[in-house]
Amino acid sequence: MGTAGYVKISKANEWPVIYKRKGKISDTFMVDTASRIKDPDTGVAKRIKTTCKSLAEAKVLCEQYSVRKANQGSEGFKLTKNQQTDAELALRELEGTGLSLLEACKFAAEHHNVEGATMTIAELVDDFMAHKLDLKAKGHTRGTRDRTLGDYRSRHGLLASKFGNMRLIDFDEVKHFDPWLRRRKSARPLINCTKVLFNHAVDRGYLKRNPIKQALPEQSLKKPEILRPNEWRNLLLTALHTD
């Protein structure tokens, strides 16, 4: 397959090279590796030229070749035709996500077998509280006092009301938590309780890591007010008459 009738449309130093040929009904495109690499079907090293029906298809093929070359070198072209087709379909699924095929594969491998792949935030909240109540029944006092449990119920209830149906692996600090947090008045208690909740998920093996990474904001302390003379007098009188 030659390049006669085709016009190069790739920029300088881009690899592989894309060529375009005008047609009566539609244009055709060709991806040219421009160097000898192993053919995925025969294993014989040769220059690979592939005709595509659209520019989008040609770009997907170029990305596929580029990723393989970057991650595996020319050995990456040993993939079979079926594997190439599978990779091409995967790249199409990733269009618009900003993720590369390698990043998507790493994410899938990391989360495929964890329970958080199916568990929702509402289910995690219930699991957390059941665990705390079980510890309290066994006599543990750390993190199980009534006031502490009340705080957890309140903060986690807010989280569940907003993100309850979301899977744990889909929950993202920047995309979901931060915008919601900015609309809340008391950020510090929410951050703390949410971090505790997801630490529980990590401890139980539901997640590989806690999605909440931000540190707690510093508490702002108000300057003490200076009492007026009559306020000092009333304070002293109250102290003198108090047993």
The helix/strand order is EEEEHHHHHHHH
Number of strands: 4
Overall mean pLDDT: 80
| Overall tally of structural domains | 3
What helical percentage do the residues reach? Answer: 40-55%
Task: Report the uncertain regions.
Answer: none
Termini separation comes to: 103 Å
Please give the order of strands in the largest beta sheet.
1-2-3-4
Total helical segments = 8
Rg computed from alpha carbons, rounded to a whole number of angstroms? 30 Å
Sheet with most strands: 4 strands, antiparallel
User: What is the overall shape?
Assistant: elongated
What percentage of the residues does DSSP assign to strands (E)?
Answer: 5-15%
What structural class do helix, strand and pairing data support?
Answer: alpha+beta
Give an account of the 3D structure.
The protein has a four-stranded antiparallel β-sheet, with helices on one face. The chain is built from eight helices and four strands; from the N terminus they run ββββαααααααα. The protein is elongated, with a radius of gyration of 30 Å. The protein has 243 residues and is α+β, with helices and mostly antiparallel strands. The chain has three domains: 7-76, no CATH class; 81-113, no CATH class; 121-204. It has helices at residues 55-72, 81-93, 101-111, 121-137, 146-163, 173-182, 187-203, 229-240; strands at residues 7-8, 17-21, 28-38, 45-52.
